[in-house]
Specification:
alpha+beta; 3-stranded mixed sheet; 5 helices; 18% helix; globular; Metallo-depent_PP-like; metal-binding; PPP_phosphatase; manganese
Amino acid sequence: MPTKRTKKGKKGNKYKANSTVDPTLMKLGSLDELLKARRTVLDPPWEGSNLIPGDVLWSDPSLEMGLSSNKERGIGLLWGPDITQQFLYTNNLKLIIRSHEGPDARDKRHDLLGMDNGYTIDHHVECGKLITLFSAPDYPQFQASEDRYNNCGAYIVLNPPDFSTPVFHSFEAVKPRPAANPYYDFEDVIDSDEELNLGAMDSGSASS
């Protein structure tokens, strides 16, 4: 869901991810703005025209109304049911299906349902629904068994004619897990929200 935030400065409008943003400067963006946004940028992008992809990647739903800073992640926003309703109504939509919030992230958010079944319906508003989908069962795969969540993954089937009634399918991981080699060094590369250190990234980019 695209959003817009600006902070006035001498060199134009900018946003710093680890600062507190005045909620009055936040407003819901548009699909046209998302279409124009740069997508071949380093992750996480948090300034200028790169702000929208960062918001789309890192923002999360909330049960509180309006827009607010996503303090847990240190980047992106939290948006409430009223924002979901506005986005669906403005764009003549009935569903928002989003991801990028697994059982590790939901384990720390007691206001929302957990990701044990691979999906949650986070907002049910007049115009439709907001759904979070997570398709990786027994997450995270390459960690020790006691560190995994033993969760189900899920996928959604949308059927004609209007494709607005999702059919959910949850599935478990095959056990015992078959031998597999990761395609990256998971011990040194961040693979969870807890390991994301935006402050260090910001300092590194400033010194380069």
